[in-house]
Amino acid sequence: MNEVCAKSGGDLVDPLVAEVARLGGLAEAQIADCVDAVTRRDVPLAQALIGRDRKLDQLQADIERRAIDLIATRQLSGRQLRRAVAALKIASNLERCGDLARNIAKRTLALSENEPLTPLTRSIDRMGRLVASRLKDVLDAYTAGELDKAAQVWSRDTEVDEHYNSLFRELLTYMMGDPRTITPGAHLLFIAKNLERIGDHATNIAEIIHFEVTGETDMGDRPKWDALMEKMPAAAKPEN
Asked: Subunit notes for this chain (predicted)?
């Protein structure tokens, strides 16, 4: 009887997981496109990105409604209950990634009115591709239920932070050396910060996958976090 209930619960949660995967695909596309918009100074792409964000918001709201309804009306337990809760939490992280991509698109519009800082734009491109890769890996881990792959994303948490710290210092050097770079440099700083936050959301998703599979909420301290924070300038440190 328990096996039948578990299977039924699994069948009920599966469509929800599929919708989260669809949301993840949309978020991945937003992030890849916002990085391309910055590096190519592509105003039409940035404008389209801003409009597309509404689709992510609507899908996240639908997933939230369905997850709450499923939890409230079905007798889910154990792994199936955790799957529903995980879907709800992952969708929220993905929606936030979409918001951050939209913010980057808005900064791209402002950057298009300034002279390009080509070397720094290339640094943004490298950081953006790293972030996009981390999000793809953790979403692949989610859809496949691969705890080891999620743990690999989690264990590389500081990679994005190190890129951000390096880019922060590089931008400050440019801005201090040439006042004409202050305005575009400030926009690039905000873009880098948004990319860093997307990397944090990928790590959050890895932790949610760990909870879904194991039922444990604690994966320990994020790797080398304290050591990295000690080396960061105060203004570069991520917000809580």
From this structure: Homodimer.
Look at residues 150, 153, 98, 112 and name the one whose alpha carbon lies nearest to residue 130: 153
pLDDT, one tens digit per residue, over 28-48 is: 999 999 999 999 999 999 999
Q: How far apart are CA 32 and CA 131, in angstroms?
A: 9
User: Are 209 and 141 a contacting pair, CB within 8 Å?
Assistant: yes
pLDDT at 120: 86
Work out how many domains the chain is built from and give that number: 1
Q: Which domain holds residue 127?
A: 2-236
Which pairs count as long-range contacts for 234-240, CB under 8 Å and 24+ apart, including other chains? 235/168, 236/164, 236/165, 236/168, 238/161, 238/196, 238/197, 238/200
Tokens matching residue 82: 């955790």
- Tell me the three state secondary structure of residue 73: helix
Radius of gyration of the chain (CA): 19
pTM of the model: 0.86
Q: What is the pLDDT of residues 49-99, one digit of tens each?
A: 999 999 999 999 999 999 999 999 888 888 899 999 999 999 999 999 999
- Neighbour count for residue 2 (Cβ, 10 Å): 8
Nearest to 91 by CA among 7, 9, 25: 25
- Which candidate, 133, 130, 136, 141, places its Cα nearest to that of 208? 141
pLDDT at 231 over 90: no
199-222 pLDDT, tens digit each: 999 999 999 999 999 888 766 666
CATH code at 176? 1.20.58.220
